[in-house]
Amino acid sequence: MRLDWIWFVAARYIFRGRRNPLAVLGIGIGVLALIVIIAVMNGFQLGFIESILEISSFHLRVESFPAENTEELRDILLAVPGITAAVPFREFQGLARGRRPGQHAVLVRGLPANAPQIDPEMAGRLDFEDGSFDIAAPRSVLLGSELARRLALETGDEITMFSISGILSGGEADDEGYGTGVETFIVTGIFRTGFYEYDTSWAFINIESAAAFLDGGGLVLGMKLKNRFEDRRILETAQKGLSGRPGFEEARFSSWRDYNRSFFGALRTEKLFMFILVGLIFVVVGLNIFQAQRRAVLERREEIGLLRAVGGGERAVRFVFVCDGAIIGLSGAGAGLVLGLLIASHIPLFFSVIETIVNGLIRILNFFAGLLGVGQAGDFAVFSPAVFYIKEIPSRIIFYEVVLIFMFGFLSALCAAWFASRRISQIRPAEVLRYE
């Protein structure tokens, strides 16, 4: 089957079709919208996931090992291929009191003073608004930015922390031996992670100070992996490396999949449903293309009959209309792909342009409102910091998702044209040309 005449006829039908530009526009808008929405959703979701894994939960954890064997355990695990960092830490729940009356719940994590060196990824996630990552002194503490604001604290101020996890010197034990740990710390840094839960309730202190709160217990070793999706293989390798070694018989390993399953599952479900809902654009556009192609088949019955009469087979003539759908799909999906990637990779600039245009219109309206003596509107912000806990709109473009979106746009037009072209089999050349 020769294709040169088929593509020629298909292109002629495309350029003469009145509804084709709308079909191309519909496919393009669908691809553009889905790429931008999914990129922004990826930015938010991956930001949350990476904040949790890099700051809080780590990729792998090991517990129930002797504290005196911590360095030996670190050496063994760092020798496992794929493990890039191993950080010992202790954490406990407590209460904090600052300048303002009242107390606030706080999760306190004790880290080594050289934590930024042994885990640079974690340190890189902490954006210090004031001070620095300095917990070398026994009574130094790092506070989340929202927690510091609630407690009305700045660097150099004192903060009092309470815990019932252990007995500190100066703490009073009750009849069962539990004490109310109370200690005063000096704020040496105020950080921001971009994750509200951490910024409003997290504090970092020296690991030895945390040991005093926990009476020497609660030691955990958190590990970072080069690829977190290889956690199961690396976990098995690490367990084999510890088997038979004295002191590590009770060591218990856990993966990030275990203690974040529900949260990550909710994010995945949210993204899937958003993908489906926005993807309905392609269903609507596909139905539009289907109806347009069906009408084109009916309107060109005489031309189809002539093509069949001069030797064009049924499959070849059907292929003309399928090529129409392919051209529409490629044109629309290609244009949407280019514009979508352009916007998704410059999201802050895109919203800045929108805000500039809207604020320009508001200033014009305010000018006329001032002449009339009526109230004036304030400046517009798409994501105002007074409402949203973000500084800028994040965006992450994932290659295979972009390819999938492009293929959805292209295939919706192609399938619609293929189904519409099936009516060609019902056209009989002799009947069509009998009265011509």
In words, what does this structure look like?
The chain has helices spanning 4-16, 20-57, 70-78, 115-118, 120-124, 145-151, 196-201, 207-213, 231-242, 256-259, 261-299, 301-309, 314-344, 347-372, 399-420, 429-433; strands at 60-63, 83-97, 104-111, 127-131, 140-144, 158-163, 181-192, 202-206, 220-225, 252-255. α2 (20-57) crosses α13 (314-344) and α13 (314-344) packs antiparallel against α15 (399-420). The protein folds into 2 domains: 4-48 and 264-345 and 395-433, no CATH class; 65-250, no CATH class. Strands 2-3-8-5-7-6 form a 6-stranded mixed beta barrel. β2 (83-97) and β3 form a beta hairpin. 54% of the residues lie in helices and 16% in strands. It is an alpha+beta fold and 436 residues long.
Counted beta strands: 10
Mean pLDDT: 80
Tally of domains: 2
How is the biggest beta sheet arranged?
6 strands, mixed, barrel
Strand order of the largest sheet: 2-3-8-5-7-6
Ranges where pLDDT stays below 50 over 5 or more residues in a row are 166-171, 173-179
Keywords:
alpha+beta; elongated; 436 residues; 6-stranded mixed β-barrel
Give the SSE layout:
Blueprint: H1 4-16, H2 20-57, E1 60-63, H3 70-78, E2 83-97, E3 104-111, H4 115-118, H5 120-124, E4 127-131, E5 140-144, H6 145-151, E6 158-163, E7 181-192, H7 196-201, E8 202-206, H8 207-213, E9 220-225, H9 231-242, E10 252-255, H10 256-259, H11 261-299, H12 301-309, H13 314-344, H14 347-372, H15 399-420, H16 429-433
Helix pairs in contact: 1-13, 2-11, 2-13, 2-15, 11-15, 13-15
